Amino acid sequence: MEPYDLIIEDLREKTEKTVKHLRDQLASIRTGRASPALVDTMRVEYYGTQTPLNQLAHISVPEARQLMIKPFDASPDVIKEIEKTIQRSNLGLNPQSDGKTLRLNLPPLSGEQRQNLVAKVKEIVENTRVALRNERRDANKHADQMKKDGDLTEDQQKRSHDLIDKELKAVEVKLDGSLKAKSKEIMED
Questions:
Q1: Which of 18, 34, 149, 170 is the least buried, fewest Cβ under 10 Å from its Cβ?
Q2: Separation between Cα atoms, residue 125 and residue 167, nearest integer Å
Q3: 69-116 residue pLDDT tens
């Protein structure tokens, strides 16, 4: 095991977390179809605590453009809080309540809305690229410091920089794939 393997392993862990965060962010962006991920992580005031909606209710997709939210605790206060949270979100959805469940009907997206959503996806991916560049910079600094401290030879330092770049290029491919897939999903009807 080379001394720089720990740097590479640490970088892998950080980039995996960053990519997972990106996927979570992209899942919450509305497309033409209903998806529980749109509302899963919304935080609802539940007895004084901000709680993710998916911990308070069962979220299902009974139809292609409809979400059904069935709270585990169907008290009127909880349903009202969920309703308020959804209305405050930037999804532009108006929940319909029957007293026990909430239904969200997703209207079709206009061409302009789709373009705006694709632009938002591109912005999120670009912010992720910046975060990854910062992780690469930190990993390279760590390798440089190890060389300075005498823990790495010059060849090992160069090899660690090459491996760090190789790791980041592999992650960039994942980002490009996520961007293309989400953009395609948004533009489909």
A1: 149
A2: 17
A3: 898 887 888 888 888 888 888 777 788 888 888 888 888 878 888 888
Distances (CA, A) of 34 to 37, 54, 104: 9, 15, 9
Superfamily of domain covering 5-27+110-187: Ribosome-recycling factor (1.10.132.20)
Q: Residue range 155-172: average pLDDT? A: 92
Helix axes 111-148, 5-27, angle to 10 degrees: 170
* Domain boundaries defined on the chain: 5-27+110-187, 36-105
State the CB neighbour count (10 A cutoff) for residue 77. 11
The C-alpha torsion from 26 through 118 and 39 to 52, rounded to 10°, is 40
Alpha-carbon dihedral 97, 103, 108, 110, rounded to 10 degrees: 60
**Residue 108: enclosing H or E segment and its boundaries?**
none
* Sequence-separated (6 or more) residues with CB below 8 Å from residue 120: 29
CB-neighbour burial class of residue 32 (10 A; exposed 0-12, middle 13-18, buried 19+): middle
Contact 69, 101 (CB under 8 A): yes
Fold of 36-105: Gyrase A; domain 2 (3.30.1360)
